[in-house]
Amino acid sequence: MKFLVFFASIVFSAVSFGQVKKPNFIVIFMDDMGYGDLGCYGATKQKTPHLDQMARDGIKLTSFYAAPVCSVSRAQLLTGCYGARISVPAVYGPGSPQGLNPQETTIAEHLKTLGYATQCIGKWHVGDQAEFLPTKQGFDHYLGIPYSNDMQGKPLDSEERVVPLLRDDKIERLLKDEDQRDIVELYTQEAIQFIREKKDQPFFLYLPHTAIHTPIYESKKFSGTSQNGRVGDWIQEVDDSTGRILAVLKELKLDENTLIVFTSDNGPWEIQGKDAGSAGPLRGAKGSTWEGGIRVPTIARWPGKIPAGTSNDAVLGTIDLLPTLVSLAGGKVPETPVIDGRDATAQLMGTSTESPREAHYGFLGYHLQTVRQGPWKLAVTPQNEAMARPVKEDAKGSEPRLYHLGKDIAETTNVAAANPQVVAQLSALATKMNAEIGGTQPTARRPAGQVEKARTLYPMQPRKKAQAPQKKAKK
Does 184 reside within a domain? Predict the structure, then answer.
């Protein structure tokens, strides 16, 4: 399938060569940033002037969905498919034998065949085996910590906790905990260098930040600069990083030919207490299919193309980025294998407020839990409030629950009894999608990538279970 995509794209590129220059794309993907963590989404304890200006210059998407946890969200963005469709149901640990199947065609692979330079900088987290790394999935180069920054291990010859920093497919160095304080700066410098080097050709930069996943390691420059502890400090550091990238685009006269999207992989990691972000007015958090777990802050900017200072409440998500960017690049996504995302160009450009999809489905692992269509959201199973948090009384029971998000964004009032036709309509959609890719007997689920002899990127001592919330250092 990848060969067919490559051949078709090469033919298209040859025909269109010499016409209007293709747009550049930058996707900045935050880790565990909640719906309420930016000033333009209501945050007050940390300042995000560059991202707020980006929203004023572009569009704020207010019903944009990711997934409950990070590996799934990344797989969805890269492939345009729900994690359940491509057998990415949960989080991968170091040395996992499974990962994003190389047979899937990623957004980078599509764009690469259309003449794009591609680079991934940051957290990968869809498999750390050689077969699954970015350079085998369409990216020319890679620099980053390949999984979550709390997945530290101890080398066989040391008691110091470390995470690997990869360049392409090799370890450049092992980062000790304090070394992570430089990670945003390192990513930013690498991103700016990439933009400068590729300014004369179309490029795709995928920048999935390590921030603001715990443990939080804000740089010394930003430590203590917010009124929201170190999580606010780290948000402000990422805001500064985004501002520097925007400044370089303007300096190189690339900003009017560059679409930049800023979004997050899931909601805040609520069990981390003061080190967690905020879901703002939304219920739930990371690890749940309540709005706070899967609806994320999202801004898109493209001067001259996206109307400035606008917002759109159309139901969109990470799965829509692949078909949208491929379309804007002049390509076309093949009809097979099936993807779930749809081209959202009209929604970005402000010519449509309707979703390009019939509905959006909220999966927790392989369990279909919610269906969103227009202002309506149906929950077809009980929902836990967040990772490691139980199901509350009003979310128990086998009967579907219906919420009108336009009137009840916090999902407090079940209106199923008063709207039986809506319940029936969304229940039918849930049944159909669940038969395709949910549960234990799906008809259209594709396999995960699998290796026989998996190993960690460096020899390490056996890892302990996930650590407790990070304690605030005394000053």
Answer: yes
Q: What amino acid positions are annotated as catalytic residues? A: 70, 125
What is the span of the domain harbouring residue 143? 2-358
**Cα separation, 364 vs 386, whole angstroms:** 11
Q: Are residues 250 and 307 in the same domain?
A: yes
CB–CB of 423/376 below 8 Å? Answer: no
Distance CA(169)–CA(399), nearest Å, equals 49
What are residue 28's phi and psi, to 5 degrees?
A: -100, 120
Residues 89 and 140 in one domain: yes
* Residue environment code for 210-227, b if the CB has 16+ CB neighbours within 10 A, otherwise e: bbbbbbbbbbeebbebbe
Q: Compute CA distances 451 → 2, 71, 163, 448, whole Å.
A: 20, 18, 22, 10
Q: Which two tokens stand for residue 411?
A: 């999902």
The stretches of 85-147 forming alpha helices (DSSP H) are 107-113
Strand pairing partners for 262? 28, 299
pLDDT tens digit sequence for 368-395: 999 999 999 999 999 999 999 999 999 9
pLDDT in tens, 441-459: 999 999 999 999 999 999 9
> What does the alpha-carbon distance between residue 317 and residue 177 come to, in Å, rounded to a whole number?
33
Q: Are residues 250 and 376 in the same domain?
A: no
| Among the listed residues 145, 291, 129, 375, the one whose alpha carbon sits nearest the alpha carbon of residue 137 | 129
In this structure, the strands spanning 367-373 and 376-379 are antiparallel
Say how far apart CA 409 and CA 270 lie, in whole Å. 19
pLDDT value for 462: 87
Give the mean model confidence (pLDDT) for residues 155-161. 94
- Relative to beta strand 117-121, strand 141-144 is parallel
Beta bridge partners of 117: 203
The whole-angstrom distance between residue 49's C-alpha and the CA centroid of its chain comes to 22
pLDDT reported for residue 20:
75
Per the structure, the count of domains in the chain is 2
- For residue 283, give the 3-state DSSP assignment: coil
Whether the ω angle into residue 215 lies within 30 degrees of 0, i.e. cis, is yes
Verify that 348 and 411 share a domain, yes or no. no
Q: What is the pTM of this model?
A: 0.94
Cβ-based neighbours of 459, under 8 Å, separated by 6 or more: 155, 156
330-369: per-residue pLDDT in tens? 999 999 999 999 999 999 999 999 999 999 999 999 999 9
